[in-house]
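User: Batch of two.

Assistant: Item 1 of 2:
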Amino acid sequence: MNEDKAVELIHLADRENSVVVRVLGRRGPDELDAEVVISSTFCNGRLDLCLSSKDLDDWAKALDDLAVERDVCWMTDMRNPEINIEFHTQFSIPLITVEDVRGSCTAMAVPVQLPGGWVDEQRGHLDRVRRM
């Protein structure tokens, strides 16, 4: 699957910053090739991912926590970069951090102003990925 046919699993963006996880295709019966792209007016980063059905289940649970503004850390198994979403920070908006825990050991964090209904939008993305 090329990037034109990629399906977004996560799309968190405002005018200046964004964190997007795109599913690029199937690697095997239970694995998806994907990428996470984090962008800001200051810098940009991109990392490859390999998502499993457990990762998708964990994201569904994380969305339940995010719906009530509980901080989450998704993908903590050291196979992929960790994605943290924090609500109660020095910013008045959520802070999203992508940390490459298994590779470069670098992290990038961006505050993102999320619109109303953003959790339901992410659930819609998850449903589309599960139907792939």
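Item 2 of 2:
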Amino acid sequence: MRPDELVSPVAPPIAVAGPERRPTSDDAVAGLFVPEASQWLSTSTSRVAGEGYSWMQAVHWVAESGLYEPRRHRSHGPRSFGPTTVRVAQELAQLSPCRPGIEYLVRRTGLSERSVEYHLGMLREAGLLAWIVRGTRVSGGPAQASEFARMIPTEFDVALGIRTVQRDEDAPAYTRAVSGIAEAGRELMAKLAKKAARKVRKPRPKSSSKAATKASGTGAEQEVVTAVPGEVRCTPMQVGTSASSTAGTTSFPPESKLASGASKSPTPKKSKAKAGSRRKLNAVGRRFQLAKELTQELDWLRGCSVPRIAWVARGVADAGWTVTDVKGWLHQRGEAARVRRGSGLLAVLLAGAETVLDTPAKRADAVAQWRGAQEAARRHHIQRVRARMDRYEGDWDAPTSRAVRREVEEAFAQVKEVANGGRRQGRNEVTDDQPAEREPSEQELAELRAVAWGELMHGEATLISSTVAALGPVGGQRVYGKELVRRALQLEAGFRSSLMTRGHR
């Protein structure tokens, strides 16, 4: 947040805890620490930062206040919340959404993978980050990156006298917005704003600077070079202490210019503004940047030509859309189950998008709906997995189809006849008046096995598994054979796993 955007309160100013002050053991200020159970967005007591600039103000305040000490809670990892953690936070502040991969942060910061994980954990423990989706590692597939929400701790608001309001009573507590700041906190907020605008870069090693200084000093002692203004310094013949030049007569500047320092050096100096500033993208550059992000974020655009996607998305790119805004709009338009040509589908879906969502507020509303749908889909998937696990780990349920139930009953009856030697016994005793029933023929067994094989090809193993449960493995193999029983048991074991789903084509 910027200091000039805050409203001056009417209430009297309160005491402000400056970042230069370090709390001692006698202070009543509690240290910053968020347990792992409260490091999720739904359980966090912090509020969501509006943008990366205001979030970096809170990061610099935590770094300089000394309220968070990593070694107080664990014996390994970094000793303090220092410049390295701020560098990692700078990379996170530029991401939208904040979904960094470990390899990306390693490449951007030059740190090791373990160091990046340590600093991400420190940002979570300090209340500056909260999990939205936690990354997973699936065997045989790519690792999914975690998605974070940039948070501002409550201690920051209390220390600077920032007032917040909850505009929507039904919204979560982390969506509260800033309504004002105390007069005593404005000066500190202005200092934090300057620090948030600057970039913390990787410090240069001291050994290299000392070696360069030593080498330059040694070279100066060995040979003295006299620079003559206006002479050509491209041949080694002109380097020396001689005042004469083979190129002809040299005109020297007057002593007045030399005394005032008006003479220009023959070596051109580099412009500091160009060396320190980053080139700003023009309209074409923004189109290609958005196209590259779309091909990376959307699965059905993988492999598409970036120049073609840039031409298709030129309207929304010129309107200042981000890849998150495009995702929110595509969620409203709907998703296709089968995509033949990604660029053509994108052109149809983006037609008139910049005229419908013509304000940042409308685009933010679309993004919020898309995120809510993602969260609902994730919860629905978890419920389906739990229901499937409860279904297959519990007692066996009879099949719902009447035809399948009838075939199961007939199979049970035939199997019992085979197991009893071809005769069906009564409940209490067997009488001689009951006629002997014949054993099933090979043709009947073949038909029964064909029915079981057909169900197995459709992903159903109820008939075979129920027979095995009633007669045991030996009885089931006598009726269906070893191969069918083995396949059915493997299929039933796969259904109990959360990594396998069942469906029909």
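Strands lie at 47-48, 129-133, 147-152, 162-165, 177-181.
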